[in-house]
Amino acid sequence: MKKMLFLIMGCAIVSTLTAQENIDELLAAGVNDAKRFSENYIKPANDGLAYGINVGWFNNAATPKRFGFELSLIGNASFIKDEQKTFNLNVAEYENIRFPDNSPNKNVATALGHNDPAQTVIITYEDPIFGNQEAEFELPTGIGAANINIIPTVFLQASFSPFNGTQVKARYFPKVDREDAKVGLYGFGLQQDFTALLPADKALPIAISGLVAYTHLDGSYDFTNQGVVNGENQRIETETNTFLYQAIVSTKLKVINFYGSLGYMSGKNKTDLLGTYVVSDGVFFSEEITDPFSISSDTKGLLTTLGASLKAGFFGLNASYTIADFNSASLGINFMF
């Protein structure tokens, strides 16, 4: 039995699809225990991803001239803090899980962390013949095992100015299919330069604008043929939907400009473990579980961004740093027409 809870994170970030622990023994402890562990295990990863797909929406408070078009390639890195790498597993909150040394609680890895040394638990399950039975297994570790301390995101973004001061934006990351995993995202935004509406806007040294944006990410991972556990149509499906609201201010120089913003992000995450799973002790005990559980969580928080942009003809570069629950650095390559 290999590869369980970490697959939930993996379906959202293809690069982290690696073998972890197995689902069989954890489900044997009960669906409730498996779901509770999964909620704590993947929540920081969902949060980091929600923040990562919401940075880099702008490189200036001033919008291009009417009918202006901008095409950008944007890369982001969200930095993982130490407190996001572990969670406290309190056995009192579980029905059939305990530590071998009977500790009441321990810090164990989230999908962003690493168990070093390995952490094991003992689960209790009901055998129809022999009654209560116990089994020991190793808890899943996370991407920290590969010394990964960032959550990367990248996308293509296009914007168009149908009216003076108004910029319509769209961002896209094509569906990537790798090793039975698929991940993709899309988003839409609207930025309005309020100073462009003023009669003397060209005389003002700064521009002030507002941005509203929506981003959707979804992923799936089919591991039916991976030999994880007997069953059919076994897969993970996850999605994240976020809304971003930002107030932006920037200078209005010809070549180099500086910008900053204050914003708020609100998102909802949902992850489903689907398919049929035959939980068995290998000899006498066997139980089929269908669509074991669905996990939902919210991600909300403030974002503060500081950045600079450089323009040379139709070509431009911008870099920014965002302070939030997950701090992020962003780099954009821009082509303006």
In words, what does this structure look like?
The protein has a single domain, classed as Lipocalin (Beta Barrel), CATH 2.40.128. It has 337 residues and is mainly beta. Helices cover 10% and strands 55% of the residues. The N terminus is likely disordered. It contains three helices and 16 strands. The strands form three sheets. Strands 1-7-8-9-10-11-12-14-15-16 form a ten-stranded antiparallel β-barrel. The protein starts with 5 loop residues before the first helix and ends with a strand.
Give the SSE layout.
Layout: H1 6-10, H2 23-28, H3 31-52, E1 69-79, E2 86-90, E3 97-98, E4 105-109, E5 120-127, E6 131-138, E7 150-163, E8 166-178, E9 181-193, E10 206-222, E11 231-251, E12 256-280, E13 286-290, E14 293-312, E15 315-323, E16 328-336
Antiparallel strand pairs: 1-7, 1-16, 2-4, 3-5, 5-6, 7-8, 8-9, 9-10, 10-11, 11-12, 12-13, 12-14, 14-15, 15-16
For the structure shown, list the relevant keywords.
337 residues; mainly beta; Lipocalin; 55% strand
